Structure formats: structure tokens, C-alpha cells
Amino acid sequence: MSLEVKHVTYIYQKGSPAENHALQDICLKIDEGEFLGIVGHTGSGKSTLIQHLNGLLKPSEGEILVDGVDINQKESRAKLKELRMQVGLVFQYPEYQLFEETVENDIAFGPRSLGLSEQEIKERVQHTMELLNLDYENFRNKSPFELSGGEKRKVAIAGVLAMQPKYLILDEPTAGLDPRGRQEFLELIAMLHRQGMTIVMVSHSMDDIARYAQKMIVMEHGQIKLSGTPQEVFSHPVELEQIGVGVPTLTKLLLRLKERGFHVRTDLFNVNEVKKEILTALSERKGDTTC
Amino acid sequence: MIKIDHLTHIFYKESTKEEVKALDDVSLEIHEGEHIAVLGHNGCGKSTLAKHLNALLLPTAGTVEVDAVDTANEADLWTIRQMVGMVFQNPDNQLVATTVEEDVAFGPENMGIEPAIIRQRVDEALDAVAMTAFKDKGPHLLSGGQKQRVAIAGIIAMRPKYIVFDEPTAMLDPIGRQEVMNTIHYLNKQEGLTVINITHFMEEAVQADRVVIMEHGKIVLSGKPKEVFTQVDLLKEMQLDIPPIAELAALLHKENKNIAADIMTIEEMVTELCLWK
User: Fold this and answer.
1) Which of A84, B43, B226, B252 is the most buried (most CB within 10 A)?
2) Is residue A289 part of a domain?
């Protein structure tokens, strides 16, 4: 089972003077259970790409396959709703999309539109709120608008999770949160991943991608410039610098140390591993003064 | 100097009908030419503190004085607002006009300044934020970082002595963030403006002269970045981010006391490790 992007091109305002190729011949396969990071700066096509994954945008050319089914094919129209359910999309600043009078109703909106029984809806809402550490009894009747920023975002994400998607796509889920909120969300996403959910996360933080993603792609001008594991991708610091996304802080340090003659690996991201590597390099090279 | 003396601020929360102490006996002196970073989680009182600096909020108890003028003195309100400019998080909420230069002129126009002088101030302000080339453009055509720089120019054109930035880079991408931080440094170092930057980004805080950390309406830690960010355990306990290099320095120092614990940047770390190679 997988999410597959096959030779997708997307053109905004085709035929007008403002015609713009937002995606150019993108090929990408996201296997079930994977954690994929997407990086690239504003305007590189990241958001356009993820909006294709659940059929919000239709490719100008190419196809999107969810578990092998082309979601834009005429014959699969009837199934489109079901396929979209498989792919949950959390936009940037999702809290702007809250609209119901109570937290419970807001989260229940998606499941209710699926035509589930009230009992099932309630169970899903309760379960999702527990997952996000939102006490059901305490929060269910509150207005989403009286919550703190972090709580609002949780409610918005809960609305997507209550649809029980197989693939969860998040566009900069931690933007604008405080450090505590950021850590909490990243841990939550990692937990969903451990429970088997496929995660696609757009992020500007190379440190976060290095820490959580198993695979990553780097986009520029609507194309995938680099892809692979974070170790593979971050071993191209020159290209990444040109694209303007850079490498994780500790990678940058290791690269600089290597330039100065230290015998260190440069594909480590964890602070404890980096510490060990540096201490080993120091002890091995004691007395050498080529620095 | 801005002098905050035993400042307490109490909100009345309509929804729960209870009083919330947003600031609890805060004292702080901000000196001219300083660059201060204020850190802390949402709800810790940082923004409430910021809004006291130009009388958007007034103390429940205690005082705030800007160059010895008490912010609670209503007659001096416009003097204070002119001395202390504020830049907020969302650039889209701060731009009002249809072209960049008109937007920058908005503040000085409202101060009743002569047109010729406004012209000069707008040109200088746009120059200071490196946006002169965009002066005839519509603000909606700009990137987030560019919009934020225009918002800053609008403040500079009013010639404040102090600028308070309330999470100015929170909604920007890394390039926009860098542009705005470069502008903030330029204003502080080259133009001598006093900068108070409220932020969640530790890499921004590392570049300040002084870091103030707030929690539950109080200042819990304050000092030079090197003094603050070496308190790794305390920061972790507060669930604040630690700059990655500072965290690494602390770990290395634990194992090898030769390596200094107060290292904040990649450059410093490379230099330090070369010493012990």
C-alpha cells in the first residue's frame, strides 16, 4: 500500500500571461508506514504538491495513486470520498479553520459527514481527544475560540485524526508555536508514526527533519532536487546551501570540523552521538596540530 | 532608559470570570543601545510586558517609565508612543496603504510632520530596511519578510528610540527570518536603536546582548546569552529549547573539563575544539 505521485505537472492559470508551472514532472512514492519530510523554501511547490495528495488539486498532467487507485479517474469518482478519507491533510495554521460552537462539534464535523452513527462519532471524538491530551469532559463544551493557540491547533488536528486517515499530511505543523508546543506536537506526530500511520511533514526546520523523518525530499522550482534518507540528502551540503535550505546545525558543525582536519563522520544528527564522535576524534588525534 | 519597577498586571477573564495575574512584580531596566531578547512560553507574560512599554496596557500596580516619563500619565501618551515603536507578528495586519512608500509615510503623516520632512524620513527608513527598490510596489506583492521590513520602516519613520518586536519572525520562512533579523541587527548596531525582541527562536536570542526568560508572569532568568544558555538543566526543566551548540558544549564539558561550557555558535565551537585537538 502506498501513496504514489506519477509524473505530475501542475500549471496555475494555464493559458494566461501569469501561467506558472508550480510542479514539473514530479515522481514520488510514499510507502505505508513511512515518515517523509518535505523541505524547500516558500514558492518551491511543497504546498501545491501536498494538495494533490488528497485530490484538492488535480494534476495538469500525471496521476496520483492512493493504494494503487488513481484518485482523479472518472471511474473512481464514487470512491473519491473514500480515498480522500484515507489521506488526512492538516494545513498550515489549521486553527484558522475552526468554526463550530463547541470543541466536540468541531472535531465531530468530519466523522459526521461520513454518515457514522452518533455513538461511533462520540467514541472517535473521545478517543482522538485523549490521544491529544485534551480532557474530554473539560474541553468538549468549550468554544474553540476561547482556547490557547496550542489547544486550538490540537482541536484542528483532532478534526482530521477523527477521520482515521491512513496517511497524515502536515504542512508546517509547528509554525508559530512556542517551544513547549513544538516539542509536544513533534512527539505526537512521532507517536502516530510509531502506531503505524504514514506521515508526510512539510517543515522549514532541518533539525526537526533530521530527527524525525526516515526519508526526505528537497524541492525547488516545482521539482524534486534531492531525495533519500536524511543521511543521504544532508551529505550534499553545497547543493542544499544553493537551494537555500541548508543542513542541520550539528551537521554544519561536523562539516566545519572535518574541513579543519578532524576525522569525524558528518552524517550524525543526535547530540549524544555527535558528542561521542567529537570526543573520539579528539582523543585519537591528540598532539596533531594541523588545525 | 526604560525602567520597569515592580510591575504587576491583572486581567479580568470574561469567559471564566476570574482574575489572571499576567505580570507579577516584574522589575527590569532597558538601557539605551541595548538589544534584549525576551523568551518564554505562550502565556508567560512576554507580550503583556511588551504592551506596557508604549502604554498599550497600563500597570495594575508598579510603574513603567520611558526616559523618565511615566506611561500612566495620559497627557504624555503620544510622546511615549513616538519614543517606543512596536512591530507585531503578522505583517498582513500592519500594512495599511496601497504602496510601500505610502505605507511608511502613514505614521509620520499622522504626527503632523511637514511633507518635505516626511519624504526624507520615508526615504531613509526604506533605505535602512533595504526596501527602497520596492517603494512603488503594492505591499500585497511582497514576501512575508519584505512585508515585515516595510512594517519596520513604518516604525522607523516615526524616529523612535526604542523598538519592541513581538515575535516578528514567527510567521516567516527561514529566508524571511534572516532578512528581518539582519534588519534588526543593523538598526541596533548601526543606527543605535534600542531593541527589545520577543521571540521563540533561540538562535535569535543568542545574538542579543541580554536574554530575559519569563515564566508565570515573572522574570526567572536574565543575563548574557552565555550565562543563560549554559543553564541547560534549568532550561530543559522549563521545556525551553536550548541552542544545539550550547547543548553540545554542555555535554562535551561534562566529559572533558578542558572544553568550555559557554559556547553558543558553530564558529566558537570550531575554534574551541581546535585548541584541544
Assistant:
1) B252
2) no
